[in-house]
Amino acid sequence: MLQDIYPHVFCNDFVRRDPVPGDIALFFPAPDQVLLKSGENGLTLPTFADFSPVAAQGADHLFDIDDQGVYLLAKPGVYSGALSACSTLQFRTLQPGHLAFAGITASQLYRWKHSHRFCGSCGSPMRGGDWERCMVCPNCHQVEYPKISPAVITAITDGDRLLMVKNDRSSYPNWALVAGFVEFGETFEQTVAREAREEVGLSVKDIRYIGSQPWPFSETEMVGFVAHLDGPDVITLQEEELTDARWFARADIPPSTSDISIGNRLIELFRAGELG
After folding, report:
1. Distance between CA atoms of 85 and 51, rounded to whole angstroms?
2. Is 215 part of any domain?
3. What is the phi/psi pair of residue 120, to 5°?
């Protein structure tokens, strides 16, 4: 999955330190764009060596990958001609994988900081926290932490069949699993049952946790479950959310298009007969 970067090590300890030329330097011209470097092996993440010294001024240390710091630039200054603005969706396929994870995680933190430049309570400019990763209003002392929205994704099974859904109107129009955000007052398991009921009109039982993953593309923590059909298998489609939903026999499950998501992991576990 996206976060599985072993033998590389991700460290999100909150520390303040000045960058060195070999540290990763990321500048986002817009919430969905990032400066990437073109090289012989394709796109990669730039370092401070690709920018003029002014880039280090006000650079915000986000986290480390191994011994390499990852920084958010406040201003890029003059930079190498090998750098160009690219869609952050490039991080879905960027190689090696540990750099893709670094890039998309940095973009999540950029979007959070960008959307909290001003206090939502009094409107004053906010600043970064001195002792933890947060944005603080110096006027009313409102504190905002990085946005992380919990959501569930569920492999709904009926014997040798798996329920799959799709939304041709979304940015991911491929076959996937029932998923949705956790609402107030709910447990994860209650969210699983509600989403199954709302999106496809099905009741489920034997809800079981499988795993989780950060999904920085949507500031989400995805929590994966398997659940068994409880009752009739007739699908009632929520057309505002989906364009299709079907039961697939194990042998007929569509081939995977990516291996970075927990949704894909659930599908592959079922395909292999490892989800009871």
Report:
1. 14
2. yes
3. -75, -10
Residue 141's contacts (CB-CB under 8 Å, 6 or more residues apart) are none
Pair 186, 241 in one domain: yes
Do residue 209 and residue 245 come from a single domain? yes
Alpha carbons within 13 A on the beta-carbon side of 148: 11
Question: Per-residue pLDDT for 276 more than 80?
Answer: no
Q: Are 146 and 133 in contact (CB under 8 A)?
A: yes
Q: Is-contact 28 90, C-beta < 8 A?
A: no
Domain that holds residue 74: 10-115
> Taking 90 as the threshold, does the pLDDT of residue 171 lie above it?
no
Is 110 a member of any domain? yes
Q: How many domains does the chain have?
A: 3
> Same domain, yes or no, for 133 and 196?
no
For 75-112, how does the pLDDT look when each residue is reduced to its tens digit (9 = 90+)? 888 788 889 999 999 999 999 999 999 999 999 999 99
